[in-house]
Amino acid sequence: MSKILDGVLASQAIKDELKIKVAQLANEGRKLPHLAAVLVGSDGASETYVGSKVRTCEEIGFKSTLIRLAEDISENKLLSVIEDLN
Predict the structure, then answer these.
(1) What structural domains and CATH numbers belong to the chain?
(2) Is the distance from CB of 72 to CB of 40 less than 8 angstroms?
(3) Which of 74, 57, 72, 32 is nearest to 82 (CA)?
């Protein structure tokens, strides 16, 4: 027997659960999750995708940082930025 999954409902349930867990972390004085997104260049689809992730982080209570870099950035400089995030 197959079951149709409501993706919107499932997504909201996950977000609600994460909100509770993030609030618990905050109440305990623990470090909150933090999304760091690095965008290289100006691809519209990537902008939309990352923007959606940043908004979701805000909704849940995660911290987020968006780092925009020029498309002509050198590989070494990009790797340095990523290393600094870690």
Answers:
(1) 7-85 (3.40.50.10860)
(2) no
(3) 74
The three-class DSSP label of residue 38 is: strand
Nearest C-alpha neighbor of 75 from the set 38, 46, 24, 35 = 38
pLDDT string in tens for the chain (86-residue length) = 788 888 899 999 999 999 999 999 999 999 999 999 999 999 999 999 999 999 999 999 989 999 999 999 999 999 999 999 98
Burial class (CB in 10 A: 0-12, 13-18, 19+), 30: exposed
Question: H-helix or E-strand containing 65?
Answer: strand 63-69
